[in-house]
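Entry 12.
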Amino acid sequence: MYLSRFLSIHALWVTVSSVMQPYPLVWGHYDVCKTQIYTEEGKVWDYMACQPESTDMTKYLKVRLDPPDITCGDPPETFCAMGNPYMCNNECDASTPELAHPPELMFDFEGRHPSTFWQSATWKDYPKPLQVNITLSWSKTIELTDNIVITFESGRPDQMILEKSLDYGRTWQPYQYYATDCLDAFHMDPKSVKDLSQHTVLEIICTEEYSTGYMTNSKIIHFEIKDRFAFFAGPWLRNMASLYGQLDTTKKLRDFFTVTDLRIRLLRPAVGEIYVDELHLARYFYAISDIKVHGRCKCNLHATVCVYDNSKLTCECEHNTTGPDCGKCKKNYQGRPWSPGSYLPIPKGTANTCIPSISSIGTNVCDNELLHCQNGGTCHNNVRCLCPAAYTGVLCEKLRCEEAGGCGSGSGSGPGASALRRPALLVTALLATAGPLVI
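Predicted 3D structure (tokens):
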């Protein structure tokens, strides 16, 4: 009896879950671009905002070092042990795999023992600065979704800048400064992300939190994405609707988390003391064992899939859009200006699909494939959509009240109003027939 009741409840949940799709179980997944729904007029497409899943973006980047010959090992050289800076019999040799430390070891599997890491040449040219630029490029616009984490095998640098580019490396802006002494290094007062707020979340800060020398147990530097999200979504990121609402309406905020390239500027290695020990310059170098960058392809809420082909990331665009970021309407679908999708209203957003151009419509305004009349409109002889009283437009895609000067929020006549109510009513009806759960 108990088993049969459990199976009944399980079947009920599966039924409810399938019916409720594509309504996300967690607000803001936006993992479906369109779905077919049944109306009194038959089966039609229901379009919604959509985006790819967040993933490890280091699998798709290209790395460049400047100067290009800064990696240790050519010619071979000795360096001091990281745990004991006065034990200087370790060797870096690019011609021997076991002793080489090339750049790709910043992105390999981190479970190996001994750990693998990239390493620079030592500071043998002191007092000339030992400076390195590490540029990470995607040839694609990406949106960051988690903290950038850099793990050093050496001491964390005394001075470092993390920079971003939004135009494929043509121009750069600072993301964050790192120093053991912010005032001395960058003429900035030290701050942490905890000192920021919703109103100052875009402020570029210098932090001393992650800049210490050899004598620390921690090797990690963060650029805190989630802490900034938390100003809008709460400390556990449970109110994603609030965050997505802010991203939807504030372009500067959206651009802050968007990059095409990142650059790590290593300006001064970990010294550990006030003065450089000129008798033991093999103590000073940079070594990085891991870099983590999580994000998603920017597809302007017009795609759920981003493919990696021929060393290039490209969105698989829907909503009659095209381009690497789905940033324009397809040919013959320019009946209104292109627009990115919108996260609002939660949970489905607004697709802002591209519609057929008037010049390309001819006698075929609507059909049974891509040119469905929307919002309950019916296709009349493939030449025009007959729209419900509340809607207008070539495909019944616009609310008539918007043209009249605005729609009242309490009217309940928004595009998703009836659709949003249906799942809740269905769940209530199904649960009412299930009876109590006996444990």
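Annotation: The chain is about 15% helix and 25% strand. The two ends are 10 Å apart (CA to CA).
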